[in-house]
């Protein structure tokens, strides 16, 4: 299972990424990622195939809690 977290509305992060991009953008072999493509790829949660059938909803429940800011 792979998740891609995006950073919509993360103005401070966008400003830092833009500043860093300007700093390294002229270096050979550096391809700066545009802000609209900025994301974090996360892997390693495991396979849904390893869960019992009734547990398949569990990862989505956790992500929804994170999205809503619940602890």
Can you describe this structure?
- There is one protein chain.
- This protein has one domain.
- With 71 residues, the chain is α+β, with helices and mostly antiparallel strands.
- The chain contains 2 helices and 2 strands.
- The chain has helices spanning 11-24, 58-68, and strands at residues 2-6, 39-43.
- The longest helix is centred in the first third of the chain and has 14 residues, at 11-24.
- The chain is elongated, with a radius of gyration of 17 Å.
- It has a two-stranded antiparallel sheet.
In short:
This protein is an alpha+beta fold and 71 residues long. The protein contains two helices and two strands; from the N terminus they run βαβα.
- Overall mean confidence score, pLDDT: 79
- Helix/strand structural class: alpha+beta
Distance between the termini: 22 Å
For the secondary structure, the number of strands is 2
Rg measurement, Å: 17 Å
**Major beta sheet, specifics?**
2 strands, antiparallel
**Strand-and-helix sequence, N→C?**
EHEH
Given as residue ranges, the uncertain stretches (5+ residues, pLDDT < 50) are none
Q: Helix count?
A: 2
Strand content: 5-15%
Shape, per Cα inertia axes: elongated
Give the % helix: 25-40%
Question: Multimeric state of these chains?
Answer: single chain
Number of domains: 1
- With strands numbered from the N-terminus, the spatial order across the biggest sheet is 1-2
Give a quick set of tags describing it.
71 residues; alpha+beta; two-stranded antiparallel sheet; 2 helices
């Amino acid at each position: 299972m792979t998740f891609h977290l995006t950073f919509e509305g993360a103005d401070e992060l966008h400003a830092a990424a833009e500043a860093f991009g300007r700093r390294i953008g002229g270096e050979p072999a550096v391809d700066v990622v545009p802000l609209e493509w900025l994301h974090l790829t996360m892997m390693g949660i495991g396979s849904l195939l390893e869960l019992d059938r009734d547990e398949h909803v569990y990862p989505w429940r956790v992500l929804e809690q994170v999205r809503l800011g619940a602890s």
